[in-house]
Fold this sequence. Notes:
The protein is 45% helix and 13% strand. By secondary structure, it is α/β, with parallel strands linked by helices. The chain has 3 domains: 5-68; 118-306, Rossmann fold (3-Layer(aba) Sandwich), CATH 3.40.50; 318-370, Orthogonal Bundle (Arc Repressor Mutant, subunit A). A 9-stranded mixed β-sheet has the order 1-2-6-5-4-3-7-8-9, sandwiched between helices. A 3-stranded antiparallel β-sheet has the order 10-12-11. Helix 9 (189-197) links the parallel strand 5 (172-175) and strand 6. It is elongated, with a radius of gyration of 25 Å. The two termini are 47 Å apart.
Amino acid sequence: MQFTYEEKLAMLKINSFSFLRADWLGRLLDIFSSPCEILKQTPQVLSEEGKISLETAQKFLQTTSRLDAEQEMEQVAKVKGTIYFKGEDNYPKELLNIKEPPPVLYVRGTLPEVNTARVAMVGTRKITPYGRRAATRLGEDLALAGVILVSGLARGVDSVVHSCAVRNKKPTLALIGTGIGRCYPAENRELARGILDTGGAIISELPFNAPPLAPHFPRRNRLIAAFSQIAVVVEGEVKSGALITAKMALEQGLDVLAVPGPIDSPQSMGPNKLIKEGAGMALTAADIIDCIPLNLKVGLDTKKLYNEEKPPQQELTSLEQSVVNAIGSGSKSTDDLALALDMGVSEIAGLLFNLEVNGIITCEDGKYSRRKF
């Protein structure tokens, strides 16, 4: 599907209404068939057909009439940005199955291919020295491995995460709570330029010059989750934007990990609570990469990460070495190995236990395989 120029202008106007709901817009598009026709209706008709209050319909038409959509197009073109419209073929597929997909998406920079490994790293603006060390260590390792880091360009953890990618000349995605024509906070202007210079993107669903209003930030958190496969919370209080992102990530079916922290630090209460409730612990970048879908790991450079975790070489007994040799490069069950080595199941089980505890082999679905470092 492709919108006409006039329909795009109408969609930009419609998108400028802060209280727009996807179900309401969908209903109106079904009824009137075109965004242009929606804007031609009276408040009374929109109220009746859209099942909204007359006051909301009036505010909607007042707001949409104030946006100069042609100027909006010109401003985006001036900064070499792109506007994506829901319903068109090039609209980011990551957003199609989330709750409340934005009807319009503004992008400066380059969106990555769909099948790329991406990890959201989020956390408090009030970052502690511990949080800075943790975010830097994880961010650096993930970026160098080829994982695209996704965050919100806010102060604190977000800024550290994006800086890790920029410093290593790797792409990173910044989902922001203003229009792409603004930079908030202002001290991140240089970082924002670095994101664009290193092949990343700055993304927003808001009009070009939208200001940093409080309601914008919780909504953008769902987009941080949508552009990621894993969400990692570094620091944050129990009631924080980072925890909102974690909640939205869970709703979207993502794995959520958290960096454990000191029990007496308010900024670690959020991650510690997530871990207590079942989130995975992110102690190393390898912990995070382990959760990335297998098909998206192709092309990642993880050799260094896993080599760093390789346990010291251990002397294997002759029987243990026989088991490892029998497993080979494939996977075997306990019964398979007992048959191959002509040994009792209980004896094989004991050997397998020792090898697994010492990190030589791993077990998945009852099948043992050699651990790949």
